[in-house]
């Protein structure tokens, strides 16, 4: 059987496979290999676009009151206020640096909250995104942290419950 040079056989001791078939098999293996990497691909997309997952709650109070409650909730959680303002409708904070899960590593959590009056003007919508910065080798390579988004963490609920508590609102049923 004669093959043109670009589609010639790929030889192996066990079998001979045509180049197009070989590349289809290789592509299929790559797709199967990447199928389990959805979360890594999503993390990479979020890093590039800055489009982190968010959670949103609406509180029956105006923006200035919710801003003050959010700042207090941040402090209650042990976070340090880093950026924002009432007129900007932003509250950003970072936790203290803490030991990481691996020996010699460290981690820090970040929170970004955006506050906006509801369309009817009777409440404030609070949208929060959170990240975790992990530095794998704090002593050997300081400043080499990797930031990743947090999707489902109890920190979201702790923040929202803190805002609610600081507004003097009763907890939701089942809380």
Notes on the structure:
It is a single chain. Helix content is 32%, strand content 30%. The protein has 175 residues and is of the alpha+beta class. The protein folds into two domains: 10-44, no CATH class; 52-166, Kinase associated domain 1, KA1 (TATA-Binding Protein), CATH 3.30.310.80. Strands 3, 4, 5, 6, 7, 8 and 9 form a seven-stranded antiparallel β-sheet that branches. The chain has a two-stranded antiparallel sheet with strand order 1-2. The longest helix has 17 residues, at 19-35. The radius of gyration is 25 Å and the shape is globular.
Strands, total number: 9
Give the helix tally: 4
CATH architecture title of the largest domain = 2-Layer Sandwich
Could you give me the name of the CATH homologous superfamily of the largest domain? Kinase associated domain 1, KA1
Oligomer: single chain
List the helices and strands and how they pair.
Blueprint: E1 9-11, E2 16-18, H1 19-35, H2 38-49, E3 55-59, H3 63-76, E4 80-85, E5 90-94, E6 98-99, E7 106-117, E8 124-135, E9 146-150, H4 154-166
Antiparallel strand pairs: 1-2, 3-8, 4-5, 5-7, 6-7, 7-8, 8-9
Helix pairs in contact: 3-4
């Amino acid at each position: 059987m004669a093959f043109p040079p670009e589609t010639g056989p790929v030889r192996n001791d066990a079998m001979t496979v045509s180049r197009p078939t070989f590349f289809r098999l290789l592509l299929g293996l790559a797709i199967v290999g990447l199928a389990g990497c959805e979360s890594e691909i999503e993390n990479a997309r979020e890093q590039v676009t800055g489009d982190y997952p968010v959670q949103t709650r609406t509180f029956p109070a105006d923006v200035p009151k919710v801003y003050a409650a959010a700042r207090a909730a941040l402090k209650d959680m042990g976070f340090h206020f880093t950026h924002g303002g009432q007129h900007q409708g932003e509250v950003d904070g970072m936790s203290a640096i803490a030991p990481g899960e691996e020996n010699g590593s460290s981690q820090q959590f970040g929170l970004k909250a955006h506050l906006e009056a509801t369309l009817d003007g009777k409440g404030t919508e609070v949208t929060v995104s959170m990240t975790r910065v992990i530095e794998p080798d704090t002593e050997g390579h300081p400043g080499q942290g990797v930031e990743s988004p947090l999707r489902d963490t109890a920190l979201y609920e702790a923040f929202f419950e803190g805002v609610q508590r600081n507004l003097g609102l009763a907890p939701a049923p089942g809380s």
